[in-house]
Amino acid sequence: MGPNLMMAHMIEALLKDNDIVAYVRGETLNFYSGATPVDGMGPAVYLANDEDYGRARELIENFERARDSAAAEGDAWQCPSCGEPIEAQFTACWKCGGARPE
Asked: Is the entire prediction scored with pTM above 0.70?
């Protein structure tokens, strides 16, 4: 799973954890783009309800701020749910989706 696909699934999980119906589309399109990536050929997160856009955008912006802050601090962490070691820039476990402890 490439970094863009992994991030798309992390955002999808974040939204679902906050009762927003979301799904990832275009997971395999990048395989067909050849050696040179084409804009719009990668994965994207879609919302089932347009009314959720404002709240989803706010959640994603908060997620990105927390990720950037954690990366700046440089402290790796261990997932409290499954014990997986996680790099500092991530706010959710890549393995089980568990949230980074405060």
From this structure: no
